[in-house]
Amino acid sequence: MSDTAAGSPEPRRRDPEGRRRAILTAAAEIVIEQGPPALTHRAIATRAGVSLGSTTQYFGSIDELREATLQQLADEIDESLNQLEPLLAGFAASPERAVAEIHEFLRDTRAVHTDVALMSTGTTDPRMRALAQRWTDRLIDMLAEHVGRERATAIAVYLDGATIHAALRDAPLDRDHLERIIVALTAMPDPAGPTTPHV
């Protein structure tokens, strides 16, 4: 009679990649709800429903686990930019579609708290700074093609502030307000390039 047939438990290490994903998912939920400082092996193991040893089996240290978690969250934020990018054609002349997408992002509590967690980590951990800056830098690059880098930077920095505002108030700025400010920034004089937006 086999060990399994005799009532012995089956080996649990059948899906190591699945368990690793479960640990990262649990860590991401903790970061979004409580911030990166709340990450501990015990908290993650409890949330993931795995043994405490599993977290150290797949990640050598809590720093390694935190970095992997923030990388995963940054990839999620990148996806929001992928959705925004095709809407930027003709942005200077007609920003409404892009503003609508940005407003949807600011209504998404998970996305907003993810972005704020990345920003706050980047201010205290130099190793995470490039990751924290990735969303803003990419948005500037995407917008610069349509409105020039000076205006693109002003819009991106304003949206960083709008993201923090949404996180603190659990609600985004009014969509009409967003559009008015973004249109005004798009039309501002650009000392680094033409004085009128690219059309």
From TrEMBL:
<keyword id="KW-0238">DNA-binding</keyword>
<protein>
    <submittedName>
        <fullName>TetR family transcriptional regulator</fullName>
    </submittedName>
</protein>
<dbReference type="Pfam" id="PF00440">
    <property type="entry name" value="TetR_N"/>
</dbReference>
<dbReference type="InterPro" id="IPR036271">
    <property type="entry name" value="Tet_transcr_reg_TetR-rel_C_sf"/>
</dbReference>
<dbReference type="InterPro" id="IPR001647">
    <property type="entry name" value="HTH_TetR"/>
</dbReference>
<feature type="domain" description="HTH tetR-type">
    <location>
        <begin position="17"/>
        <end position="77"/>
    </location>
</feature>
<dbReference type="InterPro" id="IPR041479">
    <property type="entry name" value="TetR_CgmR_C"/>
</dbReference>
<dbReference type="InterPro" id="IPR050109">
    <property type="entry name" value="HTH-type_TetR-like_transc_reg"/>
</dbReference>
<dbReference type="InterPro" id="IPR009057">
    <property type="entry name" value="Homeodomain-like_sf"/>
</dbReference>
<dbReference type="Pfam" id="PF17937">
    <property type="entry name" value="TetR_C_28"/>
</dbReference>
<feature type="DNA-binding region" description="H-T-H motif">
    <location>
        <begin position="40"/>
        <end position="59"/>
    </location>
</feature>
